[in-house]
Design goal:
It is found in: Periplasm. This protein is mainly β and 221 residues long. The chain is built from one helix and twelve strands. A six-stranded antiparallel beta barrel has the order 4-5-8-9-7-6. The radius of gyration is 23 Å and the shape is globular.
Amino acid sequence: MNERFPRPDGGPARATPARTGLAAALSIAVALVALPAHAEKADRDKPLNIEADNMSYDDLNQKNIFTGHVVATKGTIMIKADRVEVTQDPQGYQYATGTSSGNTLSYFRQKRDGVDEYIDGNAVRIDYDGKNDFTKLTTRAVVRRLQGLTKVQDEVHGSVITYDGQKDFYTASAGKDQAGPGNPSGRVRAMLAPRSGGAAPLNGAPATLTPSNTIQGQPQQ
């Protein structure tokens, strides 16, 4: 089995037990799941708009293929990639797969419902499931929670990262594409901002310490 449960590229990863990796994946998921809002609910009802250099249609597989600086938007959802394949099921739900090559990574972004926060990320491959509002980022993946569009609150690196927009739930898995100096086994790495303010300010006067005259007995040796 592959190890479960980021920092970018380097030497070969060291194999670790699947149970250890799975526990790490679950710990990251638990750490990130305590978020009050979900992905923008209106996105699934918005049309899918795509700009690209080229487009072709595969009638046999009922698939639209866009290539060259592709930008796909659906409400607050945005996918940028070298190539995007789009399919639609009989119920009208849309599915998109974005891939990029070389040093270029595909990009994903979606607003969270009811708050001025966004989820965005990069990976070689990004799969979006419009029916379940589920996004999977594969290879050299990083996902961030942003306040507004610029301030990073959380950041997770992994070989594979999934984001469930309905439940606001993440998972991350390790992989050799994350191996590098300081992380030879390609483990998941995360930076998580505090959910509340810091410690209360020290405004009070300092306490006055006085010796006690009531302590009895001999001190212990």
